[in-house]
Design brief:
Elements lengths: L8 H12 L7 H52 L6 E5 L7 E9 L5 E10 L7 E9 L12
Antiparallel strand pairs: 1-2, 2-3, 3-4
Length: about 150
């Protein structure tokens, strides 16, 4: 007895499909190309995060400098401390990295001064500057007031 059995149509189709069908999956070249594309996109993402972080840090420093300039301007106006047309100095305490400059200029209008406060970072590296100006009327001393009575 022979163990030969006839092949049915379904088995014939399977044999034909196996011989004509390529292997499924990715080739080595396709995988390497995908890795290169993925690597380039990751590098670009990391660079943009670094740039974003540096810009955010600069904005924080600038915002702090503006707050210091506003505070210095308000103190100057409240104390009427603008006899000297130009003053400068360093901040103390937690703001030691900042320097300030106060400038008082006369305007074309009588008894009106332009007061400008500029705050800069005092350390090396990228320097940030914030400047605020306002107009301040010269206050007359009591003996200079006209008595219109």
């Amino acid at each position: 007895m022979s163990s030969f059995r006839p092949i049915n149509q379904w088995e014939q189709a399977m044999v034909r499909n196996r011989s004509n069908h390529r292997r499924s999956g990715f080739s080595l070249i396709e995988v390497l190309a995908a890795l290169v594309i993925f690597s380039v996109s990751i590098v670009a993402l990391v660079e943009s995060l670094g740039t974003s972080s540096a810009m955010q840090n600069d904005l924080i420093v600038r915002q702090h400098a503006l707050a210091l300039a506003e505070n210095m301007l308000e103190q100057t106006l409240a104390a009427e401390n603008y006899d000297d047309p130009e003053q400068e100095g360093q901040f103390d305490g937690p703001d030691t990295g900042f320097a300030w400059k106060l400038k008082v200029e006369s305007t074309d209008v009588t008894d009106l001064n332009k007061v400008t406060v500029t705050v800069t970072t005092a350390g090396p590296g990228r320097q940030t500057e914030a400047s605020l100006s306002t107009l301040m009327a010269k206050r007359k001393k009591p003996d200079e007031l006209d008595s219109g009575i």
